[in-house]
Design goal:
Radius of gyration of chain A: 23 Å
Helix content of chain A: 40-55%
Shape of chain A: globular
Shape of chain B: globular
Largest interface: A-B, 42 and 38 residues
Order of helices and strands of chain A: HHEEEHHHHHHHHHHHHHEEEHHHH
Distance between the termini of chain B: 43 Å
Strand order of the largest sheet of chain A: 1-2-3
Number of strands of chain B: 7
Oligomer: heterodimer
Strand content of chain B: 25-35%
Number of helices of chain A: 19
Structural class of chain B: alpha/beta
Radius of gyration of chain B: 18 Å
Strand order of the largest sheet of chain B: 1-2-5-4-3
Chain lengths: ~400, ~160
């Protein structure tokens, strides 16, 4: 509740029937630009104040969990891409790590570091979009257009690594399809030099901007206790002051080798969520620099011929490679029985994969723990009593991506 | 906290509630008696174990296991010590009902709705148990194993040549 005056108004009405004459209903979404995808909010409004919100989701539900029960482990990578498409490589690599845990595969140190570089680049692009759009929703379109250019540069790097830009299908079970190319190194080095200045300008544009602060401070707050009860993780939880980060709590891919801090907020409002993401971009840059500087020599994939696709040239010339290629593509490889849960720090929070294998070619059961699904149910509570314009900014700062919400 | 420590703490507190236990991939996994699930989760949350973060709820279907066809799987977490635990509860398909955790965890609301949507498992005490990701009038629970992914009558989609 934003102020006591509103509580007093609400207390006067003890049933919806009494107030129907004075209130109106507003459909925010499903296909509204501010809903960032397809989800609907039915708002009960008193003037510009939101008295009650009710959400509907499921508009783009694509049954990924069901589809996964018919696909082999390699083929599921493309599904994970399409969950949080703003940071698709994190989903991919998180999935590969889950499978590696199941099959007991140790990857070389170089793969770990390569993954860290890619995942942190993905986190930066995710945060750039979220914060750029938050700035735009507050009226500063410059912010978004400015940051989009930088996102494009990161996508060029993705293209160098895997040939794709948005839904990357990055990496393979056991490592990467190929090593970083010389052009990738060139792109990354140039970008690391130029990006801090540009991002610094974006920070200066918003962080102490009077209008932006007035619009965001105190808007859409949530307490740490409520956030934990809802199951918040990631920047949205950290904005409330809880310093939980999967990269630190349960390090994967050698995150323990790097020196970085976990930025936290205090009040869990829109401004804090924005600032936590800003700070995380700087921290991610630090991680990338460390990982790139210390990138170990060695192979870019593990020796798991049952799961790692052989090189195409070998498939054409070597019988063994052809056999393995066929077995992987057709899903004839034996997978151990068992159940495994693995989680990574996604762009939005803890992205978990719960995989139950009965030894067949496909998972017996695969469940994605999707952070967006968790956040969005708290949305009505966060905007109750707020102005409609606050609701837009709140939704944006929560970074709810419909693809992940509805997977 | 180690797996053994937590297992002992739970079995000491609820000697009859833990039906079986295992540690696949070093992840403590307990099967809990359905009637006792809520008090076990409540205890985990409020006791000194502090396993008070609900990470995930999901359903699972084993059509060939009589009286235990449907299951609900809970992942819980102690963020301070980074200890995770998995609880499972199984029930017959014709009486698929388990206590709702919505009064313990606000986040359980949608997770339980999703489980109901896909598996038809009812959650006793849930304030608003409706389908969430599928159409409201879908009329069945699509993640159950009896529903095929593809339309079984289509011959052009028959992939038996590939050993599936």
């Amino acid at each position: 509740m934003k102020d006591n005056a509103l509580s007093n108004i609400l207390n006067q009405y003890d049933s919806k029937e009494q107030i129907d004459g004075q209130l109106y209903t507003l459909n925010l979404g499903p296909t509204h630009p501010a809903t960032h995808g397809i989800f609907q909010n039915v708002l009960t409004m008193d003037g510009e104040r939101i008295l009650h919100a009710e959400q509907t989701v499921g508009y783009i539900h694509r049954a990924f969990e069901k589809i996964s029960e018919r696909r082999n482990l390699t083929q599921i990578t493309t599904l994970t891409d399409r969950m949080n498409y703003c940071s698709a490589p994190i989903n991919n690599l998180g999935w590969h790590m889950t499978v590696e845990k199941l099959i007991g595969c140790e990857v070389p140190k170089r793969v770990d570091y390569m993954r860290v570089i890619i995942m942190e680049l993905a986190r930066i692009t995710d945060h750039l979009i979220c914060n750029g759009v938050t700035a735009m929703d507050a009226g500063a379109i410059t912010g978004l257009t400015y940051l989009f250019q930088e996102r494009e540069k990161v996508y060029e790097m993705y293209e160098e690594v895997c040939g794709a830009r948005l839904t990357t299908n990055m990496g393979r079970i056991g490592g990467f399809e190929r090593d970083f190319s010389p052009k990738f190194h060139e792109f990354l080095q140039t970008w690391l030099k130029k990006f801090p200045k540009i991002f610094g300008e974006f920070c200066a544009l918003n962080e102490r901007n009077r209008i932006f602060m007035d619009r965001t401070i105190g808007a859409g707050p949530i307490s740490a206790e409520r956030a934990l009860s809802y199951g918040f993780t990631g920047p949205n939880l950290r904005a409330t002051g809880v310093d939980y980060d999967v990269r630190v709590a349960n390090p994967y891919s050698s995150y323990q080798d790097f020196d970085f801090i976990i930025p936290v907020g205090t009040s869990g409002d829109t401004y804090d969520r924005f600032m936590v993401r800003q700070q995380e971009v700087w921290e991610s840059l630090k991680i990338i620099e460390q990982a790139y500087k210390n990138l170990p020599e060695g192979l870019f994939h593990a020796d798991v011929p049952d799961f790692y696709l052989p090189e195409k040239a070998d498939v054409y010339t070597k019988m063994e490679a052809l056999i393995y290629h066929f077995k992987i593509v057709m899903g004839e490889t034996d997978v151990p029985k068992g159940e495994v849960y693995h989680s990574v720090e996604g762009g939005n929070g803890e992205l978990g994969f719960y995989l139950v294998s009965d030894g067949g070619r496909s998972p017996y059961r695969l469940h994605f723990r999707r952070p967006c699904f968790i956040y969005y149910q708290a949305y009505p509570e966060m905007i109750q009593g707020a102005m409609i314009s606050d609701a837009i900014l709140t939704l944006c700062s929560m970074n709810v991506i419909a693809g992940e919400l509805d997977a | 906290m180690t797996n053994n420590f937590v297992l002992e703490a739970i079995t000491r507190e609820f000697p009859d509630s833990v039906l079986s236990h295992a540690t696949p991939y070093d992840f403590l996994t307990l099967e809990i008696k359905k009637a006792d699930l809520k008090k076990v989760i409540h205890h985990l949350r409020d006791s000194s174990l502090q396993i008070n973060f609900l990470t995930d709820i999901c359903g699972i279907h084993y059509p060939d296991t009589p009286e235990k066809e449907l299951g609900v799987i809970y992942h819980l977490h102690n963020m301070r010590t980074n200890f995770r635990i998995r609880l499972k509860v199984f029930m017959p398909k014709d009486n698929a009902e388990v206590d709702s955790m919505t009064d313990l965890y606000a986040g359980a609301n949608w997770m339980e709705r999703e489980t109901f949507d896909f598996y038809g498992i009812k959650f006793k005490g849930h304030p608003d148990l409706r389908v969430i990701l599928n159409m409201e009038d879908i009329g069945y629970h699509p993640m159950l194993k009896e529903y095929r992914l593809e339309d079984g009558t289509r011959m052009d989609k028959d992939d038996k040549m590939f050993g599936r």
